[in-house]
Amino acid sequence: MGRSTWKYQVFFLFSLILHSQLPFPSSLSSSLSSMPPCSALLHFSKSFSLDQRVSASNTYPKTASWREDKHCCSWDGVECDKNKSHVVGLDLTSSWLMGHIHSNGTLFFLPNLRRLNLADNHFRGSLIPSEFGNFKSLTYLNLSFSVFSGQIPFEISQLSSLVSLDLSKNGLLIKAPVWKRVIGNLTQLRELILDRTNMSSIRTNSLMNLSSSLTTLSLRYCDLRGKLENNILCLPSIQTLDLSENWLSIEAPVWKSVIGNLTQLRELLLGGTNMSSIRPNSLTNLSSSLTTLSLHYCDLRGKLEDNILCLPSIQTLDLSDYSFNGLLPSSLFNLPNLSTLDLGYNQLVGPLPSHVSGLNLIVLSLSSNFLNGTLPSWLFSMPSLETLYLDRNQFFGEIGEFKYNSLKNLDLGYNKLHGSIPRSVSRLVNLTILSLPSNNLSIMLGSKMFSKFKNLETLDLSNNSVSINNNAAYALPNLQYLNLAYSNISEFPRWLGDVGNNSLYYVDLRNNLLQGQFPTLNSSNLQFIFFSNNNLTGEIPSLICDAIHLGVLDLSHNNLSGMIPKCLVNSTSLSVLDLRMNSLHGTIPTTFVIRNNFRTINLNGNQLEGPLPPSLANCRDLEILDLGNNKINGVFPYWLGSLYKLQVLVIRSNRFQGRIGNPKTKFPFPNLRIIDISNNQFNGPLPIKYFKYLKAMKIVEESEVASKYMGENYYQDSLNIMMKGHYIEMERVLTILTSIDFSNNSFRGEMPKIIGRLKSLKGLNFSYNNLIGYIPSSIGNLTNLEWLDLSFNKLGHIPSGNQFNTFNNNSYTENLGLCGFPLSRTCDNNEAKQPPPPTLQQDENLEHENGFGWQAVSIGYASGTIFGMFMGYLMFKIGKPKCLVRMVKLEQHIMLRRLKKNAHKRGGRR
Ligand SMILES: *[C@@H]1O[C@H](CO)[C@@H](O)[C@H](O)[C@H]1NC(C)=O
Ligand SMILES: *[C@@H]1O[C@H](CO)[C@@H](O)[C@H](O)[C@H]1NC(C)=O
Ligand SMILES: *[C@@H]1O[C@H](CO)[C@@H](O)[C@H](O)[C@H]1NC(C)=O
Ligand SMILES: *[C@@H]1O[C@H](CO)[C@@H](O)[C@H](O)[C@H]1NC(C)=O
Ligand SMILES: *[C@@H]1O[C@H](CO)[C@@H](O)[C@H](O)[C@H]1NC(C)=O
Ligand SMILES: *[C@@H]1O[C@H](CO)[C@@H](O)[C@H](O)[C@H]1NC(C)=O
Ligand SMILES: *[C@@H]1O[C@H](CO)[C@@H](O)[C@H](O)[C@H]1NC(C)=O
Ligand SMILES: *[C@@H]1O[C@H](CO)[C@@H](O)[C@H](O)[C@H]1NC(C)=O
Predict the structure, then answer these.
(1) Confidence (pLDDT) at 730
(2) Is ligand 1 within 6 A of the CB of residue 33?
(3) Do 807 and 828 touch, CB atoms closer than 8 A?
(4) Closest ligand to the CA of 233
(5) In the list 577, 596, 682, 789, which could disulfide-bond 767, CB 3.0-4.6 Å?
């Protein structure tokens, strides 16, 4: 804003000084209620500032050209009646208006308005004044996308001449009584558009009473709920019907009447409606005049037979999202008027047709199917093609040369393509998304190819073979997202310091062969930095402090030295700080600020020393704290007990010492599930009081805790865990893994009975301490236990039954005086009644009782921009035995497709 606003205000003052003729008043003192229309208009426009950002691009402020020396009937956007006595139309669409609309505004002194359009401006959350009800002659009213808020006033229902009403995209609320009056009184309505209006209190059967003259009804994202009944859609004139993205369901009879009765339909959009009871072949009878059909995410399961869609007029066809299987119907590629075809996220198989005739698509998306074969040449010869998404299929061969330069979005990721990027790509001046991850491409970055990409926002070449040529100088001024992970680059793309200036927010160079100093990055906008698994050396530069919005910093598995920059610790934006496996030294900065955003702090495997800063207690959102394998000293960090969300605490292999003592907070560590304090110098008795309160470890029902991985789409937490005797790096941590590791300390005394209450424990390790006495039989209640290590203590008799029978000798070795089954040594004095050795039969019973098995598996995960191989801990409900010591390790690749359904690319979709 600024310039034009200022200009305008000066003009207005000037106009007041000039003596103006009618229809302007000579001064402001004249009564507002009798203000002539031109003055009212000028007054109205003066109440806004002009701000280019609030309207669509390529628009201009109409009011800026309003000049008092011309009659207002000639002003841009103003329409008068024949004898210029009344203003009857006002169209200020996309006019950069920024400001409030008040009920005393002079807009309401234009009672003869018939058409009013204020769409695409910014009214700062103004309520819609009830005075709108005074425009008795209004036939057309459009207030969409202009930042109004609150309820739709019932006075709107007094506009009984309205033919078209659009209040969409403001996030307004309409309540049942107002809705009832609207549909009861606005009998002339032909267009009703209320997208993104909260209609959650409206019953779907009220749609039945809508004006039968409606030609357009659009209620997208309106929070409508329920089943559409048979007689609801009695709209004989309807041409455009959009009920997408609600909680509606349609069953076969209604669908039949939609198809049979709504014969005028041109556009039918029902995305997100549950249509699972409808078979795809019922699409056969759709009106042949349809130009738009969108049934994405409608759950129409079944085969999409060839030739079921007889839609000669269709232009936009969206059948994406988990519905259809079978061969890709090649008939779809012969629809003569088709411009947008989206069949993404189905289970279609087979190749693309090798020839098509007359196809001229603008958008083609076949993402995430099981399509294979090579990419036919027609894909590269469509003169208007702007979007081509073929990612997540099994295409092979090379990418063809583009014949035309219209392409804006290209995603061919997650296929089996090889070769290089075709030369013609360098001519695609409007390219915004170039995404080719996870293929077998050989890509030379830095050749002249990229010099014309002024609009490029997304560049994802990860998991290919990329080489960087740092001699070529070029800029990617609009780059926002850069992913070159797993691409064998050994040089840092030096131009990265210049690209994107302030637009780059995501940079992923994980798992490459980068050497040397931490690169210079000039983007204060950076939110995600992934440089893990390289060989970066030197210090973390303080330049990183310029990235004031940084949310994820993953520099793990490098050779970084020096200290942790203070700014990383006193950040309020950082959520994930992963500096694990480097050579950082010094103390952890003490300045964790109040109201910070940390969720994960992982500093494992460095040479950090000194005590833990008490200000860590400011990390109220912290879920994972891993400080293992450092030289940190001091007492047990009891002050972390107040962190309500803390789930994982690992301080293994440090120099902590002393007794753990009693908790200082009332309910310490309520959500802790993994605690590893092994290999320190803790002594004294085991901390019974803490065991008493570890609430999360007492919850057994798997259904009570969401079994999901820790982390978000963009960052999955990984951890080093001592599990079943192996130090395993788990790349993803399931939220139901529960373990206690107190091994290799000097804990004395007996094992407390109370341990038996931590029923969700999967692992318990008290080995290498000085525990004495009996193993409490309550441990037999830990029916989820999968690994138990009490070796190298001074424990006595092993109780029998339950879990105990399932652990072998190694769980108990080197305990002086330990005896009883399953050890080979029996106890004297009838201390233990030795149970019969388990037979196969008994084993089976145990297995069936439990009904499912837990297995450590290795899974592969691919989701949009994140890709990796890792160990995971995954639940299988397979009705297989629960083998407590006989753990099964499986190699398995699982695509968790829906997790991030390419949110980056598809933005607003669900
Ligand atoms: C109109 O109402 C607003 C808010 O209620 C107030 O700030 C403003 O002074 C009023 N303007 C006139 C001309 O009365
Ligand atoms: C319907 O419109 C008429 C004419 O504008 C108006 O007088 C009446 O109050 C309206 N009824 C409702 C229920 O709003
Ligand atoms: C809609 O069509 C069905 C048959 O397809 C018919 O039985 C029904 O009467 C029609 N309903 C209306 C309201 O026209
Ligand atoms: C392509 O997929 C189909 C169906 O899954 C399969 O029968 C065919 O063998 C595949 N072709 C190639 C070349 O992989
Ligand atoms: C690139 O986009 C601009 C603006 O939309 C358009 O005018 C131009 O024709 C496009 N260039 C090509 C090669 O399609
Ligand atoms: C990492 O870099 C250091 C020093 O630059 C070098 O000595 C070492 O061999 C490198 N390690 C790997 C795995 O490349
Ligand atoms: C962090 O510390 C730096 C320097 O000590 C200071 O300038 C900055 O304001 C601090 N940030 C916060 C969020 O406290
Ligand atoms: C095991 O749990 C049951 C039920 O919670 C309880 O009654 C029993 O006393 C426990 N057994 C031991 C040995 O603690």
Answers:
(1) 62
(2) no
(3) no
(4) 3
(5) 789
Residue 343 in domain: yes
The DSSP call for residue 664 is: S
Q: Please, which residues bridge with residue 795 across strands?
A: 773
The verdict on the CB of residue 561 being under 6 Å from ligand 6 is: no
Give per-residue pLDDT as tens, 715-740: 666 766 666 556 666 655 666 678 89
378 in a structural domain: no
Q: How many Å apart are CA 306 and CA 62, to the nearest integer? A: 51
Q: How many domains are contained in the chain?
A: 4
Q: Is 349 in the pocket of ligand 4 (CB under 6 A)?
A: yes
Residues 786 and 858 in one domain: yes
Mean pLDDT for all residues in the chain = 80
Closest-CA residue, ligand 8 atom 10, reads 778
The C-alpha atoms of residue 567 and residue 589 are separated, in whole angstroms, by 9
The pLDDT value recorded for residue 27 is 39
Ligand 8: which atom is nearest the Cα of residue 756? 14
Residues 839 and 702 in one domain: yes
Q: Is 778 in the pocket of ligand 8 (CB under 6 A)?
A: yes
pLDDT in tens, 796-827: 765 555 555 555 666 666 554 454 444 455 54
Strands 853-863 and 866-876: antiparallel
Report how far residue 115's alpha carbon sits from residue 200's, in angstroms, rounded to the nearest whole number. 29
pTM of the model: 0.78
Mean pLDDT of 185-190: 93
Q: E strands of 804-885, at which residues?
A: 853-863, 866-876
Among 107, 137, 155, the domain-final residue is 107
Q: Does the beta carbon of 372 lie inside 6 Å of ligand 4?
A: yes
Highest-scoring range by mean pLDDT, 504-508, 692-696, 893-897:
504-508
Contact yes or no for 94/55 (Cβ under 8 A)? yes
pLDDT at 397 over 90: yes
Residue length, the chain?
910
Domain boundaries, position 77: 1-87+100-107
